[in-house]
Every structure is written in structure tokens, then in C-alpha cells.
Amino acid sequence: MIAISVPALSAKSNLTFMMWGLPSELKVYKQIVSSFEQENKDITVKVIVVDWDTYWNKLQAQLAGGNPPDVFAMDAPLYPDYYSRGVLLNLKPYLDREKGFLDDFFPITLQAYQKPDGIFGLPRDFQTIALYYNKDHFKAAGLKEPDETWTWETFRQACKKLTVDANKDGKPEKWGAWLDLTDMELIWSELVWQNGGEIVNKDFTKVMLDQPAAYEALQFAADLVWKDKVAPNPSRATQYGDSFKSGLAAMTTTGHWMVPDYAEIKSFKWGVAPLPKGKIRATSVNCAGFVIAKASKQQEAAWKFIKHVCGPKGQTELTKLGFACPVLKSIAYSDVYLKQAVQINHRVFLDALSYAHVKPSFKGFDEFNTNLNQGLDLIWMHKKTAKEEMATLVPQLDKLLPKP
To answer: What is the pLDDT of residues 252-299, one digit of tens each?
Structure first.
């Protein structure tokens, strides 16, 4: 066994902490930093929050220049790439000193960050996907609100009743649903898993989307748009933005991160329910996290900070922000999460963990995902059937998977 030493804390530590997010998140993280600095007088933390695209470009440049932030945010699907570069600090020696620290974490949230030689990051939150619905639209249509008994056929039939006939220019006054097909975790991965299919096999050596269980599920999503005409096509969806928030669509599928945004809705009442069920029940789960740069000269101070953010105090403050679900069971099942100001059934997102599938995470995921979405666009734009496109695309995608 190779012993890994833990560097001693210097007299005064000045940490740089970078993440993607919104201005509202910067405010909360400054509060977290403030409480941390009060408990650790010998450590100061500079917080940098930028938008998603800027974040990754900035991070790449800093890593290449040898001056990365001490602590930075990490998206689980991209984690293997950064792990493989050897730029992340192994947290196992620090965790070994904190007996029982990981016991309060939902085990599935740790899965993406664990490697055979250690654990190189900690989750800060998790996101499962649920069904959001417009209560007013359901009442007007005389429909019972969605619940755990719903199947996708129930969903489809409800969409038909909730879609108002098109007017003379072809624009429906209301759609049954708005389907955001741009990210696998929002609906189509769930449809694949629920139909008994897979996106890739367990060891990430073969793409499985050319199998009937997978491409039939993809076709079901496309048919809701083009055959049943109960959801706006991608071009129209882009034109109208978030059709659920605007009241044009009665339902959508997304994560808890939309709660603060939808809390601003004044024109109608809304709620959340579990995703409809297919052959089996499934949703996706993705976990954003925090890592420490291996090049950091303040590793001990960085560990103290990441422990604080991912610990009870930090998780409490993050939960109050309302965007995500806490990774600590003690916080998730407390009033801090369950009785937030936005009064919906927050428990739906926690219960979904029992049937959640982890979003694929492997080296080269970013390139793989880009090429996958380019192929899927042909299906979503009604230019090819799912069976046709997957027969062509899958052999190309196989070449982008990690080499055994």
C-alpha cells in the first residue's frame, strides 16, 4: 500500500474557489464562506462564480497554465476526464481522518466520485427528474392531477386532452407538454431505462441505443411531438422558450433546480409528481460536486473548506437556496428541505433515488455527448426515425468510448 501524506496547514491560507452558477448562488456561497471564515480565522476564501460555458473554458486555461483554483466545482459526467489527467487531489487520506464523515451521504451520490485508488471529489447536491404540472390546466380540462399511478400512456392521453386545437396560423393555444430533448437526463434517458434499455453497457465499452428497447423509447418521445402533436417541435420550443413557465404547456420534466425559477410564476398554480412509469420505474440522477486541485499549495485549508461546504452547515445553507437536493440524509429529511418556502411535494425528488439511474460518466463523455446530440437532433427534427439514425450513429459513438 502506498502511503499518502497530508501537507500541514500553513500559518495563513488564501483559497480561491470557483464554480458555475447564477448571481443568486454567488450570494449564498458568500454566506457559506463567511460562516466558514468565522470558524477558521486563519483561512480566507475568494469566491468566483461564472456561467457554465465561461467556467469550463476558464478552468481549462488555468489548469494548462498551472494556476488552477484551489477548490472548484465538478459535473459528475465530466469528472473522469479530469481524474484521468491527474489534476485532482485524492481525498481519501483526509476522509480516513474523519471516521464516519461519509455515513450521512446518500450512497448513490458518492458513486461517480469513487475510484479504485481513492475518492477525488465530494458531491455537493443531487438532481433527480420529476414531472411538473400546471394545476389550473388540469382543472380546466377536468383531469385528475398526476400521481404515482401514471404510466406514459396515461401521460400521452392526458397530453391529448390538454392540447388545445391549433388556430389558423398553426400555433396551439396550449400544449400538453413541453419536452426539453437537449439533455439526456431531462426525459429521454428515463424513457430508455423505463423501457428496459440502456444508453451504454456497464463497462462503457458499447453503446446500446441501437437496441429495440432503446430506439423505441426515443421514437416515443419524437412521436409525442410529430405524431400526436401534443408538444412543440424543437424549432417552436426554442421560439417560445420555457413553454411551461409561460403557461403554454401543461407539463414538463425537469429537476429541482427549476423550483426557484418556477416560484416566480404568478399566473397559475403548479405542482410536482413522480415521472410516469414504463415497463419499470426509473429516473436519472446527476451529482455536481467539489474537487481540490492537486497543484494547490493550500491543500489542508482546501480540505477544511470542502468539508464545511459538504457538511451539515454548508448543506443547510445550500438547501435554503432551493435549487437542488442535499446529499446528506439528515438535511434532506429535515424541515430545511421538506418544508421550504415553495410549498410543493419536495419528497418526490428524494423518493426517486430508490429507482434512479446514474447519468453516464466516463472519460471522453463531453465529445461523446456532443456527437450523440447531433444525431438525436435528426430524430427530434423528424428527419430520421430513431431506428434508422441509431443504426448509423451507434458504430460512430462506439469509437468515442474509453478504450479497455
So the answer is: 999 999 998 999 999 999 999 999 999 999 999 999 999 999 999 999
Please give the backbone phi and psi of residue 105, each rounded to the nearest 5 degrees, phi first: -75, 145
Domain count, the chain: 2
Give SS3 for 244: coil
Is there a domain that residue 404 lies in? no
> Which amino acid is present at 195?
N
Q: Within 187-293, where are the H helices?
A: 188-194, 212-226, 234-240, 259-262
Closest residue by Cα to residue 36 from 22, 50, 46, 26: 46
Q: Are residues 175 and 304 in the same domain?
A: no
What is the C-alpha separation between 386 and 222, in angstroms, rounded? 8
Give the cell for residue 333.
Answer: 429529511
What is d(CA 21, CA 370) in angstroms, rounded to the nearest whole number? 22
Check residue 287 and report its DSSP letter. -
pLDDT value, residue 172: 67
How far is CA 165 from its chain centroid?
34
- Kindly state whether residue 345 falls inside one of the protein's structural domains: no
Domain shared by 115 and 155, yes or no: no
Q: Which residues contact 241 (CB under 8 A, 6 or more apart)?
A: none
Q: Is 1 exposed, middle or buried (0-12, 13-18, 19+ CB in 10 A)?
A: exposed
CATH number at residue 184: 3.40.190.10
* Amino acid letter for position 101: F
Q: Which residues of the chain have pLDDT under 50?
A: 1-9
CA–CA distance, 304 with 19 (Å, rounded to integer): 17
Contact 292, 309 (CB under 8 A): no
* 378 found inside a domain: yes
The CA–CA distances, whole Å, from 51 to 16, 127, 279 equal 17, 19, 38
Q: What is this structure's pTM?
A: 0.91
Q: Looking at the structure, tell me whether residues 138 and 185 fall in a common domain.
A: yes
- List the grid coordinates of 46: 475568494
> Which grid coordinates are listed for 99?
471516521
Other CB atoms within 10 Å distance of the CB of residue 41: 8
Range of the domain at 139: 128-285+360-398
* Polymer length of the chain: 404
Render pLDDT for 121-149 as a digit per residue (tens, 0 to 9): 999 999 999 999 999 999 999 999 999 99
